[in-house]
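Our platform keeps sequence and structure together, in a single record for each protein. Because each token names a local backbone shape, the row as a whole describes the fold. One such record is reproduced below, unchanged from the form in which we store it:
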Amino acid sequence: MLHSRKIYYLLIALVFSATANSQTQFSMATDLSGIRSIKKNQQYWAVGQTVHTHFHITPVDGAYAWIAYYSRGRFDNTVTATAKSTATFPQAIVYNNRAELRFKHISIGWKHYLKGRSNAEKRLNIYGMAGFGLLLGSVTNIHSANIDTANYMVPVSSGKSHFKRLTLDVGLGIEAPVGGDIYMYFEGRSYIPTTDYPSRYLLVNENAPFTVNASLGIRILLY
């Protein structure tokens, strides 16, 4: 866990050192998102909000930083508890696990305009983004049956826990000026887990949670 923090702080230092000695323009942005977790056995819908800071080192290239918050996503899994001893009866118990998962996401990276520029006054802009992030999640599991864990092995623990993931973040967006240094944008993003950090409270740990989202927001060029 400490290792993930060190990596994130190093990325922050690299972004700000790249902008420190440049004639950088500055934007703030915020959006509302619909998010879909697409990992098998961990599929759900949620909504969220993202707040962005953009450093436009040139009109077509720059750094970004954002923090995003998402609502709870709910999903159910049918799972099986298996007996630890051959003398235990029954040897297996099939039950339902109802899970609630939510997370915050912090990301820093690079933004490049494929068409247009960050300070365009009339034209439509198209841009791409890539960066690294830190996903801070929590999960709550409720079992439909009381399982004696002294006698049975369960695939996922009951109760609440927290977890972390480092992510590779990619996105593609389109924006249009609406006047007064204000831009409306539509953006598609995905947070791709690059670490697993197994948790007994997640039925699926590998490459999870794997999400895609669509966002609609406003960017304001402040300087």
